[in-house]
Amino acid sequence: MSLVWGFLVYVPYAQALSIDTVRFGTHPDKTRIVLELDQPTDFKAFVLNDPYRIVIDLPAYEWNAGTIKKPKNGLVTDLRTGKLDTITSRLVVDVTKPVAIRSAFTLPASASAKNRLVIDFQVVSANTTTDEKKKFFGELEQQPAINPAAKTTNVNAKIAAPQKIETQTNTITPARKPTETSKVTNPFTPLRKPHIVIDAGHGGQDPGAIGINKAYEKNIALASAKELKKKLESTGRYKVSLTRDRDYYIKLYKRVQIARAKKADLFISIHADSIDDKNVRGASVYTLSNKSSDAQTAKLAARENRSDIIAGVDLTHEDKEVSDILLDLAMRDTMNQSKFFANTVVSTFKNHNIGLLRKPHRYAGFAVLKAPDVPSVLLEIGFMSNRQDAALLARSSYRSKVASALVESINRYFQTVEKNQSQ
Ligand code: ZN
Fold it and tell me: 360 to each of 178, 284, 329, 377, 411, how far by Cα in Å?
């Protein structure tokens, strides 16, 4: 038995590691770099000073990552790749300030994601870095010596792979002190505006809730989504997309796919609820959880998730269950950001005198909130089953008021995210 295990352990990888994607994520308390890889890997990560940079050593890899988008906080100035020796490659992330790695870990491939190496880092004071830089994260089998003349080349979207990597000289030195000599000359792709995807719930053969005034939820949702898009675009600060701009149905998981394909920074699904108790009114904001806040919320989620059935969609190709995704570590930060945005919406709505449901931030397993990497909320702007709410929602002036409050929420959300990143 042990022989079999030994054999398995020492089988080398059949092919070189491939770095398929490099993504940066900006969070209130840290910056995250995620490498998507074609196979599991060992790694070693640490920080160096003068100039400030994060170093990630990996087994010799092929660079297949296309466009790299620089994080919006301005912290990262460049990304370089090079070979240290025949078995080790190095990725260098140049940063403007001293940083420390907070955690570094790998995630196995799943049905919806590749193998990943995740490194979280944050800005620290210059004297902290002296200690932090001695910390190594991960472990990588090293050659006895490393070529000090190893060079890294800039990685840039406009210079597509294959990258030219400097051939190494035969100089061997016992000192493990590699230097990166290439200058920062190639900028990343220009910084982009936050991309917000607005999803008008229901549509086409699925009307959603039917109001006490016979209005359809799908139409209220679409009118509200368009109004929000118009207002957001007029600020000049955002790129905005709608999942639908007309009256047709889109499968729930497709709405998630749209947000992910656009690498959205925020996803907002707009609805208007209905309930047996005609007295219940007010707006509410939902974020993802595998446990609903209460029975009423669980019913609502079940109703919204039934949209695909109402629209006659075959559910056999639906993607994974919410509970599976919740197991993924990478999802936690997205959920924290979603919650932060939901709370921002609640406080802004209060300031704008928009009626809210009791305990307006709630949790449930809505299918449209399942993107693991896009902060997402589902907003029920009012109750179609309540006479006053239905009358308000029918008015463009009220939908405009709601949209203004949402724009303010979105401004506050991104201001906070950016401020936290620049500290
Ligand atoms: Zn709905």
Answer: 55, 4, 27, 12, 20
Residues 305-362 have pLDDT tens digits of 877 766 665 444 444 444 444 445 557 778 889 999 999 999 999 999 999 999 999 9
* Span 232-270, pLDDT tens digits: 999 999 999 999 999 999 999 899 999 999 989 999 999
Gap between the Cα atoms of 302 and 320, Å rounded: 16
Q: What is the DSSP string of 200-230?
A: E--BTTB--SB-TTS-BHHHHHHHHHHHHHH
Query: Which of 269, 272, 284 has the alpha carbon at shortest distance from 213?
Result: 272
Q: What is the DSSP string of 392-403?
A: HHT-HHHHHHHH
Task: Give the distance (Å) from ligand 1 centre to CA of residue 152.
Answer: 52
Orientation of helix 330-351 relative to helix 396-422, angle to 10°:
130
* Fold annotation for 195-421: Aminopeptidase (3.40.630)
CATH top class, domain 17-174: mainly beta
What is the Å distance from ligand 1's center to 328 Cα?
A: 27
Report CA(392)–ligand 1 centroid distance (Å). 17
Q: How far is the CA of 406 from the centre of ligand 1 (A)?
A: 18
Task: Determine the Cα–Cα distance for residues 396 and 288; give it in Å rounded to an integer.
Answer: 29
Containing 299, the helix (H) or strand (E) segment is: helix 295-305
Q: Where are the beta strands (DSSP E) in 3-67?
A: 17-27, 30-37, 44-48, 53-59, 61-63
pTM here? 0.56
CA distance 422 to 97: 10
Where are the domain boundaries for CATH 2.60.40.3500 in the chain?
17-174
Compute the distance between CA of residue 33 and CA of residue 23 in angstroms, rounded to an integer: 6
Calculate Rg over the CA atoms of the chain. Answer: 25
Ligand 1 centroid distance, CA of 249 (Å):
12
